Amino acid sequence: LTRIRAASLDLLEQLFRTAPDDVExxxxxxxxxxxxxxxxxxxxxxALRLTVLENSAHVARFFTSVAxxxxxxxxxxxxxxxxxxxxxxxxxxxAPAEDAPIAIARRAFIDAIFAFRNGINANREFVVYKTLxxxxxxxxxxxxxxxxxxAAEEAYRNERISEFVADVNATNADDWLKILQRCASTxxxxxxxxxxxxxxxxxxxxxxxxxxxxxxAQLGDDLANFLPxxxxxMESTARWRSTKAQIDQWVSQRRYLSQIxxxxxxxxxxxxxxxxxxxxxxxxxxxxxxxxx
Length: 293
What we know:
Elements: H1 2-18, H2 22-34, H3 46-66, H4 72-89, H5 100-121, H6 124-132, H7 140-144, H8 150-167, H9 173-184, H10 195-207, H11 209-215, H12 220-224, H13 227-234, H14 240-252, H15 257-266, H16 272-285
C-alpha cells in the first residue's frame, strides 16, 4: 500500500506540473490533497496513520516547491486547505502521548505546512492580492488562533488597505499599477470578491489623486471596470475639476460609458446632463449599462 500510494503521488505530481490551466490544476490538486485524508470510518491503524502523515508532508513539500509558478487564485485555495489541515493535525497540549514514529511524522507534516505558508506569504504581491481580492483568503491571525469572524476580517483588511495606500508613491506607482491590473483580472461572479479592492481604489484616489489621475491613461479593460470606485474617491479632492473634464472626454469618445453611469447612480454629485448623454450613447453603441435604470 505504501508503494502504491507513493507511485500514485508521483503520477499526480507530474499531471499537476503538465496541466495546461488552473481548471485542470484544481482537479489534480484535489486528488493530491485526498492523500492527506484518514479513513472516514473507524480509526486508522498505526501503520496507515504513519503512511498518511508521511504522504501529507510529501504533498505539502510538493506544493511548496511549485508555489512560485502558481496563480494567486490557486495559492489562495491551497493556503485555506493547509490551514484546515494544520488545525486538524495539531494536538492539544494535554493530549496523551503517541508512538514516537507517529509523533515525528505529525511534526514533519506541520513543519511542511509552515514552510508552505511562510513561502507564499514572503511573496508581497500575493499578500496584497489576497488582501484586496477574494473571500477565501487566510490571514496571519488565523494561523495563530481561531477563524476570524466577518467583522474582524474586515477590520484586518482595512488596516492593511490603509498601509498599502500609504506605500504607493510616484516612485513605485508603475509597480502598483501592475499589481492592481492583476487584481482586476480576477474572474469571479461572486459579489464578495471585490469590495476590499474597491475600498483600496477609493482610498487611493481620495488620498493620492495625482497618482490615480496618472492611472486613468493606463487602465486597461479589466481595471477600467473599477473606475466608479476611483471616481468616487476623486470627488472630494482638489483634482475633481480635472477629473470631470476627463469624464467629459471619455463620454465624447464613447469610452467607459457603463462605468460612468454606475458612478453617477451612487454619487452625491449627480450630473443629469452627463447621465442623459452617456445613457443615449451607451444605448446607441449597444453597450451593456449595469445599474443605470
